[in-house]
């Protein structure tokens, strides 16, 4: 199975209820990301056509793209965690034997999960502060706090994903970067 096929048909490596949660979150992320990118492309193309054909931009296009960028960014952090695609600084990690890498991965995943839940807490406080101020988007006219709801949702999903990664590493013989990605490097170099 190729990498693209594995992403389309994601199956959690976790047993039982945790696997069900993991698979559900994966499908939710995929829908949010695909819908967000498609809507942003459609909105941008429509705005360019309106500007050059009719001589006037769609007045709310910038606000819609702002909302979609926030949505894609915070849905994308969970997606990157699920597929083991976050940037890693792994010089010390790679020098360790398998047992050391496993312990370090559990610690890294658990601490990262805690950081995500910490950011979740503060993003909710930020949204409540925006809500209390009652500001609205100038063109669309709905409350500004609603566009930032994606931040705590993204932090929640990413925190859960890293917690599940820690659990996967505690219950498995191998070392996992996420619940479905085994630690290791692919040989992508080709000879000339």
Structure overview:
This is TRAP transporter small permease protein. It is found in: Cell inner membrane. Belongs to the TRAP transporter small permease family. Keywords: Cell inner membrane, Cell membrane, Membrane, Transmembrane, Transmembrane helix, Transport. The chain crosses the membrane at residues 30-52, 64-82, 103-128, 140-164. The chain is an all-alpha fold and 192 residues long. Helices cover 67% and strands 0% of the residues. It has six helices and no strands. It has helices spanning 3-8, 16-53, 61-82, 91-95, 98-133, 150-171. The chain is elongated and about 65 Å long. It starts with a helix and ends in a 21-residue tail after the last helix. The model is unreliable at 1-6 and 187-192 (pLDDT under 50).
The low-pLDDT segments are 1-6, 187-192
Task: Assign a percent range to the helix content.
Answer: 55-70%
Number of helices: 6
In round numbers, the mean pLDDT is 84
Largest sheet: none
Q: Output the helix-strand order.
A: HHHHHH
Characterize the overall form.
elongated
Q: Please give the alpha-carbon distance between the first and last residues.
A: 26 Å
Beta-strand share of residues: under 5%
Number of strands: 0
What is the SS-derived class?
A: mainly alpha
Radius of gyration: 20 Å
